[in-house]
Amino acid sequence: MTETAVVADALWRATVYASVCQLHLRDNVLLTEPLIAEHVKERPTGHWGTVPGTAWALSHVVLAAGHLDRRVELVPLLGAGHAGVVQLAAAWVAGELGKVRSQFAPDADGLRRLAQAFPDVDGLGSEVSPALPAGGFLGGRLGGCLPFAQGAALDTPDRVVVPIIGDGECETPTTAASWLAHRALPDASVLPIVHVNGFRMGQQSLLGAMNDDELCAYFGGLGWAAEVVHVGTGTPQEHRAFQTALWEALEYTLVGRRTVLILRCVKGWGGPATLGDRALLGTPDLHKTPLVSPRTDPDQLTRLAHWLASYRPADLFGPDGRPRGALAEAVATVRWCSFTPAEPLGEEERASAYRRASTFTEAVTAVVKQHATRGDFRVLSPDELSSNRLPDLVGERWTHELLAEEVLLEWLAGWTASGRRGVMVSYEAFAPLLTSGLVSHIKQRRMAGARGLPSLNLLLTSYGWHNVHSHGDPSLATTLLGLGVPAVRVLTPADPARTAAVLDEAFDSVDRVNLVVAGKHTRTAHYADTIKEECERGLAIWPHLSDDAEPDLTIVTAGDIPAAVAADAVGYLRERHGYRIRVVNLLDLTVLGSAQLWPRGLSAQEVDHYFGAHAAVLVLTLGHPAAVWSLLAGRLDRPVDVIGWQEPPGPMPQRLLAHTLGMDRAGVERSAGLLLATREVVR
């Protein structure tokens, strides 16, 4: 058997070689003839700087997984989206890419096709993809990989998750907070590899400016034992040193000792050290490929030929491009571990007892505890469960509180990516902090390889209508609706029974992002016989508040405060103005959207059924009116108005705030009068 260091070197060289091919070549990918201009892309593009170090770490991890006891899975994750070129290269070398895209088979023609396709690889793109090994991190943004790994590793004693993250990534607040936050997850086996190549995109990184002692002291202060390994020439001695350090770190991790492995190298090492009279090595100029004109510049073409030849492709690949020698042994040895989704649990009968809950506290506590008994459920909250009137959830084994919203989102994303279910409970005011990460997760959850996962569930309380001036911001719901992604649901239950029902369904759903906005103060109970229709269709007519005849005005309510305001106003409007009124309660805002985009969108026939054939429509919403207008998009051929959240000029009492924004009886009366006057003019 070939020495492991030699096998690791072959796998590393093959991965880097295939990466350089993707960046630059369109033909002659095995250098079977002298490189000429016609073999090179007109516009080479892509990120080179992270390639050699990322390929090094990844090669050693998958080889170690192949030598591990099969009862332990070693799951690598790539934190930098720009490392997609490495992921594609490694997947091509190992034959994994050909399994999902047959045109990229592990042979010469497959590599040629891959090089020609990059960066627009069909359905995969140029960044890290969930369809390929090491792509389980469904983030797409810098900073989330470490906490995502923590969530995925939680409560899985037979799994060690290995996030490969960059030194620039460690400067992000999400990553920085995660080192400390790991103390709250003693049963999550995570072995981070920090790739310190000295630079973020344009300048020296903060970690790169530290010496080895300072790096160890930094991580030691956060509670992590650190081991630094220097790499830069690819010698067998360097492979042996890294292999030894990796195995020691793995042993420490398996016994619960927090350990981080630091791979220290020069950015883009192995590539051109200079270009003309300009130094490249050790500068940010190697972040992307420095050879942008090899097709027209003879000097760059020569440098590219030498660069490619330095990896000795003839030793790695046979004439047909298939692995040979040590590389063939490496491909046979590696094990690509990924998250095995948990077995789906049988759907239990929806508990009608939840509907008898008279308070938010009773409703949420009952549903959460029922789901938690199944063993695959987690509740995450930014230290606000008691404030959110859920004290009975505090201290449970399946509950985690941490004052870092972005970290909690990644924990939840990692937990669900490994097939488990959960919910994040927070304040609506804090939720906009999640926007970037949530949008990124939504993007990648739509890609091949990330479907069939339990939904991401968020429960938001304490919205601006019942809080202080600084705590009014429904922006997250507005952003999610603005994406126009069918998987999004924005759910606005009107009372505790509906909150319980919608959470019960959301927790067992898949492939969705469920944003539930529910008031923790709500005690009012509304008509219960329509709850089933509201859950199944997203809305229902409330007969106890509606006239039997065709309405003049239809009031659509979305949320507890709008429902209470409508209930208070309809009798007064009938008595004073003689209006025929229908009240429709909206449980899911997306039903207002186009049926061509939103799964629950109303058809034209359903619009007439629920809203009336000619009635003016007044929508009362907890969120921004702009979100409702964007959903309606002018499709209702009738007078329409929306009352919702608008940024007030300053702090004011809650009753005055509601009056100022029109969310009271007077505001409904005013809007109704204008709508019906407009309808008469139109007639």
Written account of the structure:
The chain has 683 residues and is of the alpha/beta class. It has 23 helices and 18 strands. The protein has a 6-stranded parallel sheet with strand order 9-8-10-11-13-12, with helices on both faces. Helix 1 packs across helix 9 (236-254). The radius of gyration is 29 Å and the shape is elongated. The model has no long low-confidence stretch (mean pLDDT 93).
Keywords:
elongated, alpha/beta, 13% strand, 683 residues, five-stranded parallel beta sheet, six-stranded parallel beta sheet
Give a quick precis of the structure.
This protein is an alpha/beta fold and 683 residues long. The protein is built from 23 helices and 18 strands.
The secondary-structure class comes to: alpha/beta
Number of strands: 18
Count of separate DSSP helical elements: 23
Q: Write down the overall mean pLDDT.
A: 93
What percentage of amino acids are in beta strands? Answer: 5-15%
Regions with little confidence, pLDDT below 50 for 5+ residues: none
Q: Describe the strand arrangement of the main beta sheet, using strand numbers.
A: 9-8-10-11-13-12
Distance between the termini: 88 Å
Largest sheet: 6 strands, parallel
Oligomer: single chain
